[in-house]
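Hypothesis: this fold can be encoded by more than one sequence.
Test: take the structure tokens below, design a sequence, compare later.
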């Protein structure tokens, strides 16, 4: 059995919120030359295929590649953290309802996780409660920063406290990469910025004491944990030699948290896969592909099946660990 924890979906149609709210670069979809175009305000953001929003097309791809279940989350550009809180709440509810409807139509193949307006903690908690208690979602996807603020900022602590109480799993996905405007050439925001952004999120949650303060939080990070696994030696060394700068809010060494959070398997390299298994443990890696986008794994789980000989470990990575992270 294969469960892909890292897949994105959006509605095929959505309101033109720019016209409704009168500001911003909200995404809407337009059909142009027989292609679905994600429009950011009045500019083309990305052309997408039908499998980005059509459940039937996703199921065909899943059957073709041997994926039994997908965990559906919104596309990060739709987080809308920059919007006015009430408007961000409205768009979050729209995307969450769409995901819930998709799951309800075929709950044997899809699991949904929601999105919340983290620019307003009270609204974020309210929508998290709705996702978990009314829509039956086991978790949420959140960005690696909130309007430039690190995830460890104290203002977000009530959100983590409530997530822990609800048993709500969190999937942290990079977005709005630091330095993005300075490295537009060569697709560097996606090749360099995303791994760094994920490491930023992990370090922030460790150094701020969030992982220590809320030990029952079940957090997974996209893209194999980004650059964090491969720089943990440098990070821990920095903690040791400059505790005055690094250990200000948490006196626990960062490598003590290895095995306390999950990451997906999206590393595109068998040696890297073996390394993260050795580093974090065979219980903390979940199959994740970034479907349906080209930077993802085109055949979800293939790297695991081709690289891991032991059937017991394969099954952990392909589905057991996903169920543990989601609390299912």
């Amino acid at each position: 059995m294969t469960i892909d924890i890292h897949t994105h979906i959006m509605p095929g149609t959505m309101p033109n919120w720019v016209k409704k709210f009168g500001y911003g670069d909200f995404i809407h979809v337009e059909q142009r030359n027989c292609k679905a175009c994600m429009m950011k305000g009045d500019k083309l953001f990305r052309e997408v295929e039908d499998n980005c929003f059509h459940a039937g097309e996703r199921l065909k791809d899943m059957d073709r590649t041997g994926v039994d279940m997908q965990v559906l989350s919104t596309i990060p550009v739709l987080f809308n953290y920059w919007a006015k809180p009430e408007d961000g709440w409205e768009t979050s509810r729209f995307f969450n309802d769409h995901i819930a409807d998709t799951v309800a139509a075929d709950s044997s193949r899809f699991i949904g996780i929601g999105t919340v307006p983290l620019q307003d903690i009270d609204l974020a908690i309210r929508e998290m409660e709705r996702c978990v208690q009314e829509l039956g979602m086991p978790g949420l996807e959140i960005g690696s920063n909130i309007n430039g603020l690190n995830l460890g900022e104290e203002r977000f602590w009530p959100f983590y406290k409530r997530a822990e109480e609800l048993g709500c799993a969190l999937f942290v996905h990079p977005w709005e990469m630091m330095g993005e405007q300075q490295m537009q050439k060569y697709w560097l925001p996606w090749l360099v910025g995303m791994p760094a952004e994920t490491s930023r999120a992990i370090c922030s949650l460790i150094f701020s004491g969030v992982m220590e303060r809320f030990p029952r939080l079940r957090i997974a990070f996209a893209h194999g944990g980004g650059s964090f696994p491969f720089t943990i030696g440098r990070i821990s060394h920095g903690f040791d030699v400059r505790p005055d700068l690094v250990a200000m809010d948490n006196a626990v060494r960062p490598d003590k948290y290895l095995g306390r959070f999950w990451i997906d398997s999206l590393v595109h390299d068998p040696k890297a896969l073996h390394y993260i298994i050795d580093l974090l443990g065979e219980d903390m890696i979940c199959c994740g592909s970034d479907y349906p986008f080209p930077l993802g794994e085109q055949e979800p789980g293939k790297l695991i099946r081709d690289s891991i000989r032991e059937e017991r470990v394969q099954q952990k990575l392909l589905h057991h660990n996903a169920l543990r992270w989601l609390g299912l």
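The domain at 3-326 is CATH 3.20.20.140 (TIM Barrel). The two ends are 15 Å apart (CA to CA).
Hypothesis status: open.
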